[in-house]
Amino acid sequence: MNVQGRATLRLLDKADKQIRKLPRSVKGAVYEFQYKFRDNPENPGLNLKILEGVQGGRLYSARVNKDYRALLLHAGESDYVLVAVRPRGEVYDNLERFKHQINQVTGGIEFIDMEVVESATASAEPGTGQGHTDPAEQAGQDVPAEPAAPDVPAEAPRPLFADYTRDQLRELGVAEALLPLALKVTTDEELYGLVEYAPSLTEDVLLRLADGMGFDEVLEEITRPVATSETVDTSDYSAALARPATRATSEDTDIQAAIEDRFSRWKVFLHPAQHKLVRREYRGPARVSGGPGTGKTIVALHRVAHLAARLPPGRSKEILFTTFNKNLAADLRKRLLELGGQAVVDRVEIVNIDKLATQIVAETGRTGRRRWIDDQKALREWSDLLTELGETQWDAEFLHAEWNQVILGQAVNSRADYFRARRAGRGKRISRAQRAEIWQLVERFTMRLDEKGLWTHRQVAELAARIQSEQAMKIATFEERQDREGAQMLQHLEQSWANLRYPYRHVVVDEAQDLSPAHWKLLRALVREGDNDLFLVGDTHQRIYDNYASLSSLGINIRGRSARLTLSYRTTRQILGSALGLLGEESWDNLDDSTETLAGYRSVLKGPRPEIRGFDTWQAELDALAETVAAWEQEDRERAAAAAEAEGEDGAEQEQTSIGVAVPTRDMVSEVERRLAREGVRAAGIGPEGPRLDDAVHVGTLHRFKGLEYRRMAIAGVTRGLVPGRHIDQFREDPTRHEREVQRSRSLLFVAATRARDTLGITWHGTPSPFLPNTATDSGPPGADQVDGALFARGDALF
Ligand SMILES: Nc1ncnc2c1ncn2[C@@H]1O[C@H](COP(=O)(O)OP(=O)(O)OP(=O)(O)O)[C@@H](O)[C@H]1O
Question: Is 607 exposed, middle or buried, given 0-12, 13-18 or 19+ CB atoms closer than 10 A?
Answer without folding.
Answer: buried
